[in-house]
Design brief:
12% strand; 2 domains; five-stranded mixed sheet; 402 residues; Nucleotidyltransferase, domain 5
Length: 402
């Protein structure tokens, strides 16, 4: 469709072709790699993506998380980035590169302008990293990292808004603990083969193991890197790591949109393993709501009441109803039209009916509470002619139809 409408668009612009930006030239220089083009690569080829912590509004500056997921082993690193500029992107890649247990060989970006620019692409190539990109609007081309975005970042951090250096530091503290818990102890599946039979797709997976186990079992990882990984796994305690995640959650929960809350002074984080282990006895029964997922209290301002055009005539209408309890809403509207024909029309009948009904119910309640009646009317014209006061009927506003 775009190809067929090219000439039409040129004519609509007055014969001028649209200028392409510098990022378009950079995208054309980066080859495209889809989900099916990996073909079981060695450890070191990672998919890179950003997760925005913007809350309900994407305006302004906010913290983002750069997620890097290895294709072969599933090893995932998360780096908090304060702003989306070229320098911070390169610093985050350097930081993640130092945390991986094996050297990086290639990075696969999406079409985000934070990645697809000459500064970042040229730096990656100068460092010996193979640069590829996914197709535009095809998230399945980066299925590995997209899955980690939800399973790790969104599940732990939630969808709150984080702004500033303090929030970035708090996220970094969380990710330092999470990287060990996820990569050393949390098992994950890996696709072994996929077979298509007509419209049916059959997928088979390897047994679920932690990413660290895949790194140690992979033949392309050198022995020196495996020894460093074993040294990292030795002192790691999953219960202590989980307690550290809980403490980092509490710190982040204080920064999730504190408008309307009573902020308190930050206290130093203390990980008490004994109390945490004792809490696990009942935590599995009661469940847990993470402090990063709470719904912050927002004070709603009351809307000012708009003045009604019937308020200046309220006293007069009540006097009419007191003098003539059988007066209908149509009769009330007719009298209002005689007073101000420009303001009151036939279309106001329904509103007058509602007001008259409300006022009659209000007066009926006052009559019942006070124990008296407003006026006594004869039960029938014959009784009125005979002057029979004993057969009169007591009538109040609430008993008169509209």
């Amino acid at each position: 469709m775009d190809r067929l409408l090219t000439e039409v668009r040129i004519v609509a612009r007055g014969g001028r072709r649209r200028r392409t930006g510098m990022s378009s030239a950079v995208r054309r220089s980066v080859p495209v790699r889809t989900f099916g083009d990996w073909n079981d690569p060695p450890p070191g080829f990672v998919e890179v993506d950003f997760v925005a912590h913007s809350g309900t509004s994407s305006s302004g500056s906010f913290v983002q998380t750069m997620v890097l997921t290895d294709i072969a082993t599933g090893w995932t690193e998360c780096i908090a980035v304060r702003t989306r500029d070229n320098g911070n992107v390169i610093v985050a890649i350097k930081q993640a590169r130092s945390r991986f247990p094996f050297p990086l060989l290639g990075v696969d970006f999406d079409n985000d302008s934070a990645f697809m620019n000459a500064f970042v692409v040229s730096w990656c190539r100068s460092e010996g990293l193979e640069v590829t990109r996914s197709r535009a609007y095809r998230k399945n081309d980066q299925a590995h990292v997209e899955q980690k975005n939800g399973a790790i970042v969104r599940r732990l951090v939630g969808y709150g808004r984080f702004v500033g250096a303090d929030a970035t530091t708090a996220l970094d503290r969380l990710y330092v603990v999470v990287r060990l818990h996820v990569n050393l102890f949390q098992p994950s599946f890996k696709l072994q083969e996929k077979t298509r039979i007509g419209a049916r797709v059959i997928k088979r997976y390897h047994p679920p193991v932690p990413p660290a186990t895949r790194v140690l079992a992979h033949p392309d990882v050198v022995e020196a890197d495996k020894e460093q990984l074993r040294a990292l796994m030795g002192p790691a305690d999953p219960v202590l790591l989980f307690a550290g995640i809980r403490a980092a959650h509490e710190e982040l929960g204080k920064r999730v949109d504190q408008r309307g809350l009573n902020p308190k002074a930050d206290e130093p984080l203390v990980v008490d393993l004994q109390s945490f282990a004792a809490n696990l006895k009942t935590a599995w029964k009661n469940g847990e709501t993470r402090s990063t997922h709470r719904r912050p209290y927002r004070r709603t301002k009351p809307w000012p009441k708009r003045p009604s055009m019937y308020e200046p005539f309220e006293t007069r209408i009540k006097e009419w109803l007191n003098e003539e309890p059988a007066l209908s809403a149509a009769g009330v509207l007719q009298r209002l039209k005689e007073i101000d024909p420009e303001r009151f029309k036939e279309r106001n009948l329904r509103m007058v009916q509602r007001l008259v009904k409300a006022w009659r119910m209000e007066m009926a309640g006052l009559i019942i509470l006070e124990g008296g009646w407003i006026k006594s009317l004869p039960a029938s014209p014959a009784a009125a002619a005979a002057g029979d006061a004993g057969s009169s009927e007591l009538v109040a506003f609430g008993n008169i139809p509209q």
